[in-house]
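Hi support team,

I submitted a single chain yesterday and got back a structure, but I'm not sure I'm reading the token output correctly. Could someone confirm the output below corresponds to the sequence I sent? I've pasted both exactly as they appear in my results page.

Thanks,
R.
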Amino acid sequence: MSSRLLPLPRRAARRQTAWPLHGPRSIFTKGLRDSRRSILLAGLGMGFLTLLLGMILSLQFPTAADRQQIVAEMRMLPAAISGLLGEPINIDRLGGFMSWRYGNFMPIMFGIWSVLALSGTLAGEARGGSLEVLAGAPVSRRRIALEKIAVHVVALAGAVTVIALGAWLSGQAFATIPADAIAIGDALAHFAGVALFGLVGGALAFGLGPILGRAAAGGVALATLGDAP
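Hi R., thanks for writing in. Yes, this is the structure output for that exact sequence:
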């Protein structure tokens, strides 16, 4: 009697090879592929805000004299209100005005994104049982955790690049005085610092998630965002 094995149907073969666990590369690439929508939404959304702010500033305050009027008005605000808005540094130029106007909420947005993304990365998979499947692959659990953090770091880097390009383009398109020009390197450095703040809360949620659960870990991490600069 022949013991020859029959080939699997094509559909079954595709299911078995859809995501082979051959190490951290498959974990990283799958996570990055799943994050494409988040990168586009965050990058394009915040990048659009930088363009919108540049257009508003160029239309309402096109001259250097108009910009000095903004500075004078900000100095007249009560201390309580100016404290909420942040220190108005170099707001007579587009880059400084953009940093002052969005400096309070953009770190919070990055922080919320990081907390939501990382709080359930291990906790959700542990609850669903898929973490044991990953841990059964020929790769350590520490490497799994590092690769999953790397996915979010790359996602943040992609979003920062898009936002920085939006800020640079805003300076190119809507500059009305020479000081409005924004160097792409300066924009990348600024928004990278903002993203790093958000990553701190996400890292805390990532570490606490398997211990406290996603909801509790996310709550603790979100509470730290109240110290945003």
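A quick pointer for reading it: Residues 120 and 214 are 5 Å apart (CA to CA). Let us know if anything else looks off.

Best,
Support desk
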